[in-house]
Automatic annotation (TrEMBL):
Highest taxon listed in the record's lineage: Bacteria
Gene3D superfamilies reported in the protein's UniProt record: Immunoglobulins
Protein name: Fibronectin type-III domain-containing protein
Amino acid sequence: MNKKNVKKIITIIFFGFLVFLFVYSNQKTREQEIINQDSRYDLSVCTNDLVDQVECYSSGFPTPKFRWSCNANQEIFEDEYVFVLQIDDNNDFLSPEFNSGEVSTKNLFYEIDREGLQSEVLYYWRIKVQNKYATWSDWAPSDIPFTTSPMCK
């Protein structure tokens, strides 16, 4: 290989690298624009069909199903997103009766499947979500508290 060919190969590699950097930086700039525009998501919790419950619980503890909607750029959430749902008998949430922890899902609902709630008690709930950029929304409280159904007799 002569010096002329080596110089051409180095030039091609150099310009290829510059094109790669340009494309990569434009993609990162677009992602940053989305993050900047939507750093706090307008997350609203549905008040229609707020909490689905059976007429009475036979399982030993209440297992309500919570529904919500996300008013945000769906591109941010892609296929899955993470949420945390808290339930408390006091609307200050200083010591939640139930905390889901971080849950990864494609759903806009969550059914309680473990102990933590009592029957016939008034509860408040709230939720926050995280997008694919690991940015959390603010807590979105539900507008309407709910009372768990009684236990079956």
